[in-house]
Amino acid sequence: MPYRRLRSLLDRPRRSWTGIALLGLALSSIAGGAANELAALGSAPRSEAPMASQETTHMWMSVGTQRFAVTVEDNPTARALVRLLPVTLEMAELNGNEKHGRLPRSLPVDAMRPGTIRTGDVLLYGNDTLVVFYQTFRSSYSYTRIGRIAESAGLAQALGPGDPRVTFTGL
Fold it and tell me: What is the pLDDT of residues 69-87, one digit of tens each?
């Protein structure tokens, strides 16, 4: 974008959404020297710091010496859980397909019936019970999705037949 066109966008008292979008495109394509000129005009380029809306997209689940990466959903429930980390839960066995543990506080919910629950699903039951599923099966219960363990090989063995202590941490 020519310098004069960019300058006219900056000098406008009111910027339209189109103008702001064009300004953003221009700033992203300008080399270092032009960016310094813009800074001198009082319109410094945006910083590279992460925006407040960008949250952790992964967390770790550790059982004994084994760790599993959990891909976290982009929803208020998952974000609230990430803010609680680290958290260690005594997880109880249920139905030969899941482990569940009570969180230290309630999380926001947006429950739905998934129909089929898959090995590696990490869901919230009610507003304070974290559930890790190690078998795929059909269910009519309602849950709020938190995340998924992508590489779930060995998950059932790691969780074992009893009531394991499971720790969730950020990356």
Answer: 999 999 999 999 999 999 9
Residues 70 and 8 in one domain: no
53 within a domain of the structure (yes/no): no
- The answer to whether residue 45 is domain-embedded is no
**Enclosing domain of residue 90:** 58-170
Directed axis angle between helix 3-11 and helix 17-29, to 10°?
140
Is residue 97 in some structural domain? Answer: yes
Tens of pLDDT, residue by residue over 12-39, are: 444 443 343 333 433 333 333 433 433 3
Confidence of residue 150 (pLDDT cuts 50, 70, 90): confident
Over pLDDT 70: what percentage of the chain?
67
Rounded to 10 deg, the angle between the 3-11 and 32-40 helix axes is 30
Mean pLDDT of all residues in the chain? 78
The reply to whether 29 and 104 lie within a common domain is no
Strands (E), the chain: 58-63, 66-72, 87-90, 92-94, 98-102, 116-117, 121-125, 129-133, 137-138, 144-149, 165-170
